[in-house]
Amino acid sequence: MDKLFALSLGFAGLILATHAGHGQPAPDCGPRAQVLAVLAESYQETRRGLGLAGRQQLVELFASDRTGSWTITVTLPDGRMCLIAAGQSWESLADPLPARGNPA
What are the residues whose beta carbons fall under 8 Å from the beta carbon of 98, sequence distance 6 or more? Predict the structure, then answer.
């Protein structure tokens, strides 16, 4: 599960970097405290995991077992938190990863 989450974090960082590198509009961003309040109050989401993307970006996964919603965010060094992806039908899993050398 840790490797899958780490891979997801890498993809989130890549998405953010791709937006910035190709002149595309940046993802929705706001002050960290404000975004956290919206996730908690409007969607009942709590933080489920986090990791670093590069040296200066904090990637977090928020989800709600109650509403089924989930959100991936990136917090930038200037304190802005950006929404990278969001969706529905969240399910918490504790599946073991396959042993090394065995395909999934």
Answer: 104
Question: Rounded to an integer, what distance in angstroms lies between the CA atom of residue 85 and that of residue 74?
Answer: 10
Pairing label, strands 80-87, 46-53:
unpaired
Structure tokens at 14: 């890549």
Element (H, E) at 46: strand 46-53
| pLDDT 10s digits, 51-84 | 999 889 999 999 999 999 999 999 999 999 999 9
Q: How many angstroms separate the CA atoms of 1 and 99, rounded?
A: 12
CB atoms within 10 A of CB 54: 11
For the entire predicted model, the pTM comes to 0.69
Candidates 86, 73, 62; CA nearest to 31 is 73
What strand order describes the sheet that includes 70-75? 29-31, 80-87, 70-75, 57-63, 46-53
- % the chain with pLDDT above 70: 71
